[in-house]
């Protein structure tokens, strides 16, 4: 059973095409990571699926109905990318305020304990650090015992220890059968939590697979070298950038590329191999999908 679905969804903001015919579904009990660089369309997809915005065309479903109808959002928890907490209220009061909207909320102490927030219960939210505020904002998504949560970049600005605490809270929810969709810029973060990752770039779904398979796709190396002659035809090169005599080749298998260069007798200098950033890997993936 799908708890959330997008069917050929397009969303424009004026001239800007933020999502381009995206189809995506989440089954009950799944923990799915949406991975993509800035501006890829992740938040837009989350906002459509949670009823905050409407698609320009295509269809979205939440618990089998229209996400804009409040009844379909009753079993949903959301942490948007930015949350404003009322500065003069204490953490415990904010939790109580949100709890009051639900028939059967989690007891306050249990929620705070799950997310390592017990020590903050009497602190005014205006005096919390950025990371502490973020942890409170994420915990609030779980107050109403949701069946599904959408967490938009839940660990932004958190240090390693706070991130682990949050991951533990998310894992516990998932282990009890809860469904989770989270967005991130980092494959490592999704890897720590999810098996399935959906890569979004330029408003399109570029890959929907296991973390292992996607790691293979984005594990691109940049091979830089200076050559003063035309390059032979090289297999496995997804992109070439030129900077005078200096060439930068993007490839999934740098070892094979260097072996091929040697086998062809190419006279190269200053060979350098380094991992690409996820950003560069996305660009290569986006170009591949555009060429397909
Ligand atoms: N309200 C809006 N008005 C105009 N353009 C928008 C609006 N919201 C998003 N966009 C544009 O749509 C595109 C997708 O944005 P979106 O926020 O969905 O990306 P994202 O993947 O969540 O990015 P980030 O990782 O930076 O949060 C971007 O080019 C963004 O500038």
UniProtKB/TrEMBL annotation:
Signal peptide, first to last residue: none
Topology in the lipid bilayer: Peripheral membrane protein
CDD domains to which the protein is assigned, alphabetical: ABC_DR_subfamily_A (cd03230)
SUPFAM superfamilies listed in its UniProt record: P-loop containing nucleoside triphosphate hydrolases
Keywords in alphabetical order: Antibiotic resistance, ATP-binding, Nucleotide-binding, Transport
Matching PROSITE patterns: ABC_TRANSPORTER_1 (PS00211), ABC_TRANSPORTER_2 (PS50893)
Record-annotated ABC transporter domain positions: 4-227
SMART domains, per database record: AAA
Any one Gene Ontology molecular-function term assigned to this protein's record: ATP binding
PANTHER family: ABC TRANSPORTER ATP-BINDING PROTEIN
Record's protein name: ABC transporter ATP-binding protein
Organism: Paractinoplanes aksuensis
């Amino acid at each position: 059973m799908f708890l959330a679905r997008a069917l050929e969804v397009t969303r424009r903001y004026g001239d800007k095409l933020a999502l381009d015919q995206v189809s995506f579904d989440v089954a009950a009990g799944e923990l799915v990571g949406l991975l993509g660089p800035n501006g890829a369309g992740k938040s837009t997809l989350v906002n459509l699926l949670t009823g905050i915005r409407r698609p320009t065309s295509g269809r979205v479903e939440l618990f089998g109905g229209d996400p804009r109808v409040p009844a379909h959002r009753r079993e949903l928890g959301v942490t948007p990318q930015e949350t404003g907490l009322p500065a003069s209220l204490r953490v415990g009061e904010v939790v109580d305020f949100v709890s009051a909207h639900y028939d059967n909320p989690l007891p306050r102490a249990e929620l705070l304990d799950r997310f390592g927030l017990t020590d903050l219960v009497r602190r005014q939210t205006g005096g919390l650090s950025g990371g502490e505020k973020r942890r409170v904002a994420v915990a609030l998504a779980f107050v109403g015992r949701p069946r599904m949560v959408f967490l938009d970049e839940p660990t932004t600005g958190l240090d390693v220890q706070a991130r682990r605490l949050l991951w533990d809270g998310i894992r516990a929810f998932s282990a009890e059968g809860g469904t989770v969709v989270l967005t991130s810029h980092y494959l490592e973060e999704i890897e720590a939590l999810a098996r399935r990752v959906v890569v979004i770039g330029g408003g399109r779904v570029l890959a929907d697979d296991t973390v292992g398979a996607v790691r293979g796709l984005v594990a691109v190396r940049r091979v830089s070298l200076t050559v003063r002659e035309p390059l032979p035809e090289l297999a496995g090169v997804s992109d070439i950038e030129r900077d005078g005599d200096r060439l930068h080749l993007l490839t999934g298998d740098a070892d094979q590329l260097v072996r091929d260069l040697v086998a062809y007798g190419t006279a190269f200098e200053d060979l350098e191999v380094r991992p690409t950033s996820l950003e560069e890997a996305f660009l290569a993936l986006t170009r591949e999908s555009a060429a397909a």
